[in-house]
Each structure stands twice: as structure tokens, then as C-alpha cells.
Amino acid sequence: MQVRPIPAIAMMSLALVSIPAYQKLEAHLEGNHHDESQSQTYGEETTHETAHHEEAHHEEAHKILVTSPLAKPVTITQQFVCQIHSHRHIEVCALESGYLEEIPVREGQAVKQGETMFRILPTLYDARLAAEKAEVQLAQIEFNNTEKLFQQKVVAQPEVALAQAKLAKAQARMQLTQAELDFATIKAPFDGIIDHQHLQQGSLIAEGDILTTLSDNKVMWVYFNVPEARYLEYIADPHKDDLIVELRLANGQKFEHTGKIGAIEADFNNETGNIAFRADFPNSDGLLRHGQTGTVLLSRTTEAVVIPQRATFEILARKYAYVVSNDELASHPANNDSEQSSTDSTKYEVPRGIVRQREIVIQSEQDDIYLIKDGIGVNDRIILEGIRQVRDGDEVEYEFRDPEEVLSNLKYHAE
User: Could you tell me what percent of the chain has a pLDDT over 70?
Assistant: First the structure.
């Protein structure tokens, strides 16, 4: 096959058509390169702004609230579950057997000393008493006759003594029978309140049967158990007589009268390690009854170091607080950079410090505050808000707040 040559005019026309297309392609490629450059520049600016925002947010998050422990008079109260007893609470028992003839009192009634409570059928005791009275009269007559005969020198002196002894014996037997008759009438040995009656009228009772109980509630004995450590603290306390002893009843209300420690039992309970204390409370209005329960409150006012509870955290049942120290700031590695030292005048306008975790020992706990026994003092600065944002060894900026202001606003929402 023969190939024909392309004419020169056709070659020139093809070149003229291809030049604009090439220019257009070149312009398009340059535009894409420019867009990529702009996109890269915009990405760098965005990354820079994001990093700046994160840094600003990081610095803002580490601006925490700091306060100090405060020494102030605090009322320390110890609570103990207690049982309330009448200072005189007895079982009223039958001293003789027989039929329960009369019960002139009611359950829950207040009786006076000497008032009749129960009466056992006295017919048998009356007959015995009459017989013994007759024996006394007979012995009296024999003694009188013997004495006359002695005056007439008919009998000797021993006969008079024998008659006198018979009279004394008869009188003693009569007194015994009178006592048995008296036992048939059971009277109140002291002023008190009658409890449940175990037997009713007409019941056949035996000697020693419990008829009821009688309680004298003028003074109440309140018993509560104290651990050995608390007992030793109480004994060693030179101001134990200044303790305020109060009683909180089952309804949450405090009894209107204060009491005093009346006694401490002799022995510890080996099973519980406790010893029983007794507090005495006056009960003139009769509100307290035998068998009630409540809570004894032992209070005293003392000087103590206190901190808010929300300034602490717990690890493995131990309490800790974050203490902010300014003493370590100069030696902290972050401050050894020469570039940072040139800007100290502006950088340290906001207080800064090094965070240290410190264990604390709690003496006692009250609403929203802890009383500190050991670990921190009034010269320390502790983190109040921002505990979750820091770790031991962090350098942070903080805002200090007066501890009195903090304690006055503890009911506000915590972090």
C-alpha cells in the first residue's frame, strides 16, 4: 500500500488548532497547583489555630480553686445507741398462795407508796390470826396467875419465868400470822407506774408468782456501750466533767433535759470489746418509759482544724488532699528554661504552684466538713475545686479563696 505525504498546508492548520488547546491545558494545571497551595496554607493556619485553642483550653482547665484549712471552735459530738431503763423497776410477786380476790388498780396507772395493788383471799389467814390471838390471851392469863402465886410465895421464881416465856412465844406466833395476813394484801413499795397484769381476778396463785411490774420513772438510767479506745480517751480527758450529755429519741427529737454520766460498769464485754456507760436523765414530766431506745449524744467544744469534705478524695480507704506548694516552684524543671525566665514578670501575675498529694487523718466528721487530726495545717493550701484536673507533681495556676468564705458556702453545688 502506498502512503501519501501530508501536505504542508494541513500541517500548519493542525499546529494552529493545537496551540490554544495546549495553552488551555497549561492554565488548568497551574490553577490546580494554586488551589493545592491555598489548601495547604489554609490547613496550616487551621492546625495552628486548633493547637492554639487547645493550649488555651488546657491553661484554662488548670486554673483551679484553692483554699486553706481553718482553725475554729467546733462542737464534737459522739453518738451511741442506748437503752432507757427506770432507775427502779421491780417485779411484784405473790408472797402467799391463794385466790386473787381483788385488783383495785389498772394497767398503766400511777400509784403512790403504800397503795393497795392486789389482795389475796384472806379467810384462812384471818382464822389463823384469831387462833393465835386466843393463844396469846391464854398465855397472858397463865402468866398473871403464876405471878400472883409467886407473890403469895406459893410458887418459885422459875415458874414465873416459864409462864412469861410461854406468853412471849404466843405473841410471836400471833405476829407471824399477822405478817402472813399482811402479805395477802400487796401494796406499792414506792411511787411508780403499773405495767401489764399477768394474772386476773379469781386466779389461783402460788407463792412467788409474778403479778405485775412497777417502774419508778422520776429518774431514767440510760445505758450505752463505749468501745475501749473511746473509754480510754474519756478516762484521760481532764475536762470530761464538761461533757454535754443529751438524748435523741426515736422520732429524731432531742429530750428537753440534759443528763450526766452516772456510772461505768466494772467489766468489759470480751465478745464485743465494749464497756457499758450509764447516763442519768431527770424525767419529771414522765415522757420517758422503761424499755425505750434512743441515741446518747456526748458533745464538747474544742479548737480544731477543719476543711471541706469536697477538698478530699479516697484511695483504698485512705483520705487524701492535694496541697499546692510554692516552695518547689523555683526548682521545678518547667521553670529552668531561659526563654520562660524572660517572661516571668508577666507569667506569674496569676498564682502558681506545684501539686502534691498528701494523706490526711480524720479526727471526726460533721456536715460538709472534716476535722483534721494530722496531715495538713492552717498554713497549707489545698485544692477545693479542680481535683480531677490535676495529678501529683503538676504545675498549675490557681485562684485562692478565703477559707471562711468557703465554709460559709458549703451548701453550694460542688464539683
Answer: 78
Q: How far is CA 349 from the centre of its chain?
A: 46
Give the closest residue to 410 by CA, choosing from 310, 293, 267, 306.
310
From residue 21, give the alpha-carbon distance in Å to each of 10, 13, 29. Answer: 18, 13, 12
Calculate mean pLDDT across residues 86-95.
93
**What is the reported pLDDT for 2?**
45
Would the pTM count as exceeding 0.90?
Answer: no
**Residue where the block lists cell 459530738:** 77
pLDDT tier at 346, thresholds 50, 70, 90: very low
Q: How far apart are CA 87 and CA 360, in angstroms?
A: 44
177, 103, 168, 104: which is closest to 140 by C-alpha? 168
Three cell numbers, residue 23: 495553552
**Exposure of 72 in the CB half-sphere (CA atoms within 13 A):** 14
- 3-state SS, residue 248: strand
C-alpha cell at 226: 463505749
Instruction: Kindly state the cell numbers that stand for 364.
Output: 471526726
The single residue listed with the C-alpha cell 411511787 is: 191
Compute, in degrees rounded to 10, the torsion defined by CA atoms 392, 398, 399, 401.
20
In angstroms, rounded to a whole number, what is the distance separating the alpha carbons of residues 83 and 250?
Answer: 11
Q: How far apart are CA 341 and CA 333, in angstroms?
A: 12
- pLDDT one-digit tens code per residue, 293-304: 999 999 988 889
